[in-house]
Amino acid sequence: MATRKQRARRAKTFRHDYALVELDEEGNEIELRSTELRAKKQDAAPAKAKTAAKPTGARSGSGRKDPQPPSWERAFRRAALWGLPMMAVMFFFLRSDPVPTRILIGLVYTLMFIPLTYWLDGMVYRKWEKRKSAPPRPSRPGKTR
Fold first, then answer.
1. In angstroms, rounded to a whole number, what is the distance separating the alpha carbons of residues 102 and 86?
2. 101 — alpha (psi -120 to 50), left (phi > 0) or beta?
């Protein structure tokens, strides 16, 4: 039995009065069946795929950016952005320590952040590469998107 959400979603499609029609050359409306629409979509999809090649660095189908290979430059930039808030946190939480100690601790955390972000970028990129080269998983029956 369908869940309440599934029943509501199905009922929503019946509330709207619309028909799938196509105009012929004389301007008459011809009603289409869903099987005809599916066939047209499947015929159009391979043609689109051939003409619209994805440039490198393009977004994937999920809307997320593809990860870039790790770079030390990006790791240093992130560490620079991370260092300022870390200094503020050290000045706020370590009030009893002298100022040079707080600065040193903030710098140590910032410097430790550089290889950490490089390692994380590399891990994410390798995982993405492995997933991209793997054959697509078959979808589960009954699962709809």
1. 10
2. alpha
For residue 98, give the 3-state DSSP assignment.
coil
b/e 35-54 (16+ beta carbons within 10 angstroms → b): eeeeeeeeeeeeeeeeeeee
Cα–Cα distance measured from residue 118 to residue 110, given in angstroms and rounded to the nearest whole number: 13
Angle at 130 between CA 127 and CA 136, to 5 degrees: 120
Which residues, listed in sequence order, are joined to residue 18 by a DSSP beta bridge? Answer: none
pLDDT average, residue stretch 39-52: 67
**CA R_g for the chain:** 28
Assess contact for 73 and 117: CB atoms under 8 A: no
Q: What is the pLDDT of residue 116?
A: 93
- Lowest model confidence (mean pLDDT) among 7-16, 22-31, 45-54, 111-120: 45-54
SS3 71: coil
Distance CA 73, CA 118 (A): 9
- The position carrying tokens 């990129």 is 125
Q: Could you identify the residue written with the tokens 């697509």? A: 136
